[in-house]
């Protein structure tokens, strides 16, 4: 088993691209009812970046995250993740890559109702196979630490049906971060949170970015998140067409 919980050293130097999309198009359906969900996307994201994708409902944010997460595939153009051309990878290799380097926060939270909050957070590591006793202890400690940082210390043993939407969303965020992924894809991860909880989440994202070099691609319609990001991109009708803001800490360049 990968010692992903052990490598808490200094953040890797930001170099190379984690994500490179070139001329990407995505269509749903065909004929007169076809939807051109992504229309010629060019995007590069490097390690330790925090990129916000803003845009109105239906602009293509979820589709873009799903393509980067290899949950859907482009009709045209290339998607390169960690220097691997995704279209050429066998299914198992895609699944392994996804498992080993990515954390997801889905809009629907997707918590398992018969597992406690802590067990839900631990799930990504459990699915990787049998853990040694020491690894299991470290994973438990990290799960509890993440839950604590997100204001859920007293809910570790609570089952999802007894959690409200804000608490469920924070459990889903802790789950995405547990294995110290290289890249977190988060689809409107603070949509159910109040300002205080948004601050907790953004503090945690920033900490993970600095400690582990984690890159974040976050779709949002909430301006309150944007002060922490390294780049803000606007998606409109499937086109990435403007950089809205720059927090002044931008270590990478974007080519739209
Ligand atoms: N599975 C699908 N089948 C058909 N059309 C789809 C599918 N998924 C998305 N679309 C369409 O693609 C376009 C982009 O949708 P997408 O969900 O990516 O936008 P979004 O910006 O994430 O919207 P929201 O903020 O409402 O989640 C929309 O017109 C949507 O209706």
TrEMBL record:
Keyword entries, A-Z: ATP-binding, Cell membrane, Membrane, Nucleotide-binding, Transport
Pfam families registered for this protein in UniProt: ABC_tran
Outline the extent of the ABC transporter domain: 19-256
User: Which PANTHER family does this UniProt record tie to the protein?
Assistant: ABC TRANSPORTER ABCH.1, IMPORT ATP-BINDING PROTEIN
Instruction: Tell me which GO cellular component terms the UniProt record holds.
Output: plasma membrane
* Protein's recorded name: ABC transporter domain-containing protein
Family annotation (SUPFAM superfamilies): P-loop containing nucleoside triphosphate hydrolases
| GO MF terms, alphabetically ordered | ATP binding; ATP hydrolysis activity; transmembrane transporter activity
């Amino acid at each position: 088993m990968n010692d992903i919980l052990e490598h808490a050293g200094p953040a890797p130097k930001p170099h190379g691209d984690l994500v490179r999309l070139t001329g990407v198009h995505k269509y749903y359906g065909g004929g007169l009812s076809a939807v051109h969900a992504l229309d010629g996307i060019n995007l590069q994201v490097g390690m330790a970046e925090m990129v916000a994708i803003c845009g109105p409902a239906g602009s293509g944010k979820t589709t873009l995250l799903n393509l980067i997460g290899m949950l859907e595939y482009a009709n045209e153009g290339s998607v390169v993740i960690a220097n691997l051309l995704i279209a050429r990878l066998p299914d198992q290799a895609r699944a392994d890559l996804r498992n080993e380097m990515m954390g997801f926060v889905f809009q629907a939270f997707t918590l398992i109702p018969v597992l406690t909050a802590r067990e839900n957070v631990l799930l990504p590591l459990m699915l990787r196979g049998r853990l040694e006793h020491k690894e299991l202890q470290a994973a438990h400690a990290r799960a509890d630490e993440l839950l604590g940082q997100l204001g859920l210390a007293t809910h570790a043993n609570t089952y999802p049906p007894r959690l409200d939407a804000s608490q469920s969303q924070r459990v889903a965020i802790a789950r995405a971060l547990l294995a110290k992924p290289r890249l977190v894809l988060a689809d409107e991860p603070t949509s159910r949170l109040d300002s205080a909880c948004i601050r907790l989440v953004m503090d945690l994202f920033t900490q993970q970015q600095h400690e582990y070099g984690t890159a974040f691609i976050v779709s949002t319609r909430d301006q309150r998140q944007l002060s922490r990001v390294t780049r803000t991109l606007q998606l409109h009708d499937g086109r990435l067409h403007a950089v809205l803001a720059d927090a002044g800490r931008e270590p990478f360049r974007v080519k739209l």
